Amino acid sequence: MVLLGEKEFFKGIGEIAYEGRDSDNPMAFKFYNPEQKVAGKTMREHFKFAMAYWHTLCGTGTDPFGPGTKQFPWSTSSDPIKAAMDKADAAFEFATKMGFDYYCFHDFDLVDEAETLSESEKRIHKIVDYLKQKQKDSGIKLLWGTANCFSNPRYMNGAASNPDFNVVAHSGAQVKIAIDATIALNGENYVFWGGREGYMSLLNTNMKLEQENIGRFLNMAKDYARGQGFKGTFFIEPKPMEPTKHQYDFDAATSINSLREYGLQEDFKLNIEVNHATLAQHTFQHELQVAANAGMLGSIDANRGDYQNGWDTDQFPNNVLETAEAMLVFLKADGLQGGGINFDAKTRRNSTDLEDIFLAHIGGADTFARGLLVAEAIIQRSNYGSLLENRYASFNSGKGLDFVRGNLSLNDLYDHAKLSGEPKQISGKQELYENILNQYI
């Protein structure tokens, strides 16, 4: 049953069903079957797909060269509370028609920011009360909340890393309100996205102080949330650049190091975004593996970049090859820790029909589902696992096993090398691994 508000916003579009790969219906899933079991879990359980409030409901197609091209029917009221309620109605109509169990938001995606912090807080409280009822009526849950501490001009020099303590304090107040809203809505996680936590020039930057202040800030926020009874996971989302030239959370490895340095590793995981991975000159699967190796693979922002454009284009995922390789990492890591997959992606500026939002999400869900099916087939039906294991077989016995167990010294390596002679050249067989991946796609 589709949950509607006072009016239906996506008219003529019903619930999106799974019809299989031979279906010609553009408004149907071809690969994403929510109840199909893959590697012991249903696709619904693996993915926990979430609608991203900001792009789906707020992204009008504005770019540096012109205003938005999309006139959304839920954005017509001049009353900020009425407009926020209309947007919430559209959000839950969309999510129920898509069959998604989750949504996520920044604070001021929900309702426009007011002139004062106190008035903004009142607005947040009002819309949170409305969302509570929407969640109760629909069964849709909040995957995570976060605060937009990057768009307002006050954050032009950062939020927690700002050189002005007054701005740091304001961002702290905003995060507190966003955490309160997340807790009130039974949010399962909370995200910190440091969109301007970095610097443009070292000449006017005390990098050490700024990074230490971020550590202090995150510990304060964590302690406050735990004190309020929040038991969910906190996520950091790595991003290498744009808008800030030197981001303090450049990639997964950098973020993990920072979390460990400031004693946050027990409470925080990573939220990995595809487009951020490629902007950092990594692959999506690399960033997933780095997070998984550290026990910090928490959640995923599903999108893709444009290989010809060096910025965060946030396009919907459609690269099955890339996603299948990523799902190999995903399955071997036993999935995500606490989070899910939210579509941090926007329809193109010239995709102006409301149905385009559905088509984009259908394609994105099918891409991840198809990648998951390919990964499962490779693991279960091919010799991929044994090939990979055999490549490292020298560490399973003899001196190799002694090395892994920490029982050898550098002199032991020296002695072994003298006795063994020149090592044989052993092929990495990269093309074979690539062919196996292609075979199951």
UniProtKB/TrEMBL annotation:
Gene Ontology cellular-component annotations: cytoplasm
UniProt-annotated binding residues for Mg(2+) 2: E273, H276, D312, D314
Cofactor: Mg(2+)
Cofactor remark from the record: Binds 2 magnesium ions per subunit.
Alphabetical GO biological process terms: D-xylose metabolic process
Catalytic residues (positions): H106, D109
GO molecular function: magnesium ion binding; xylose isomerase activity
Keyword terms, alphabetized: Carbohydrate metabolism, Cytoplasm, Isomerase, Magnesium, Metal-binding, Xylose metabolism
Enzyme kind, highest EC tier: isomerase
Residues noted as binding Mg(2+) 1 in the record, renumbered to the chain: E237, E273, D301, D344
Reaction catalysis annotation: alpha-D-xylose = alpha-D-xylulofuranose
Intracellular or extracellular location(s): Cytoplasm
EC number: 5.3.1.5
Superkingdom of origin organism: Bacteria
InterPro entries per the UniProt record, alphabetical: Xyl_isomerase-like_sf (IPR036237), Xylose_isom_bac (IPR013452), Xylose_isomerase (IPR001998)
SUPFAM superfamilies (UniProt xref): Xylose isomerase-like (SSF51658)
Protein family: Belongs to the xylose isomerase family.
Subunit structure: Homotetramer.
HAMAP family: Xylose_isom_A
Protein name per its UniProtKB record: Xylose isomerase
Organism encoding this protein: Poritiphilus flavus
Upper classification of the organism: Bacteria, Pseudomonadati, Bacteroidota, Flavobacteriia, Flavobacteriales
Gene: xylA
